[in-house]
Task: inverse folding
């Protein structure tokens, strides 16, 4: 299996800005190897003194992130394997939460499930009008359990409940902005990128100590996520073994 087939995560650093970019040919879905790579590269950039701010993005033009890899979901045969897979999303969210640098989310296209979780766990997410969002987990018999705390923290319980229950409905980028997931929505990718470059440069010229302290304050009350998200991963790990879910995924 070559690099393109299994996807990749890359980091580039330029003028204090670390850009972490991920790609997978299946609509930027996230198998275990990409989840692990994201954790490693987020932690590395967070600990690099030359990095002042991080941009999290994906490659391609249409889909930001399709969430969990269906191929890996189909391959899960026991509870421990299921819990381990979903813990991969917990690891990424916790890495983003604990990272001492602000993370800017660049959401250029559709985000599903775990992709919505990434946008929610970023400190400041901006999007294009094409960045419709959906929490599709219930439709396959699981539920957005691991990413739920991050989405609820950013959008509120009402909006999270609406998305989690109405699992087949796409929500517009403007709706996501109204609910707090996105801070800005742009008509084109070019305008999105131009503003992100401008905004990131402003943060690079801000006090690193002040930004670190502010991030700590903004994430207060999430200290229990070191336990909570893995408890949620266990729920998903159990449900993914159900006949309902196996039938839904196979379709």
Result:
């Amino acid at each position: 299996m070559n690099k393109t087939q299994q996807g990749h995560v890359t980091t580039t650093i330029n003028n204090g800005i670390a850009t972490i970019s991920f790609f997978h040919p299946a609509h930027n879905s996230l198998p275990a190897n990409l989840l692990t790579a994201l954790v490693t590269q987020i932690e590395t950039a967070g600990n690099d003194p030359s990095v002042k701010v991080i941009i999290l993005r994906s490659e391609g033009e249409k889909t930001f992130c399709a969430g969990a890899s269906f191929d890996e979901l189909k391959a899960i045969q026991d509870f421990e394997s299921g819990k381990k897979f979903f813990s991969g999303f917990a690891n990424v969210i916790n890495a983003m939460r604990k990272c001492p640098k602000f993370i800017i989310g660049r959401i250029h296209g559709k985000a599903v499930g775990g992709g919505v979780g990434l946008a929610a766990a970023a400190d400041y997410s901006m999007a294009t009008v094409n960045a419709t969002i959906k929490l599709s987990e219930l439709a396959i018999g699981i539920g957005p359990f691991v990413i739920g705390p991050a989405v609820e923290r950013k959008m509120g319980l009402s909006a999270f409940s609406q998305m989690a229950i109405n699992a087949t409905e796409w929500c517009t980028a403007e709706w996501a902005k109204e609910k707090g997931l996105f801070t800005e929505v742009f008509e084109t990718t070019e305008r999105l990128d131009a503003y992100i470059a401008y905004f990131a440069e402003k943060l690079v010229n801000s006090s690193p100590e002040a930004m670190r302290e502010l991030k700590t304050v903004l994430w207060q009350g999430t200290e229990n996520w070191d336990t909570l998200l893995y408890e949620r991963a266990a729920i998903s790990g159990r449900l993914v073994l159900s006949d309902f879910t196996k039938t839904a995924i196979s379709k």
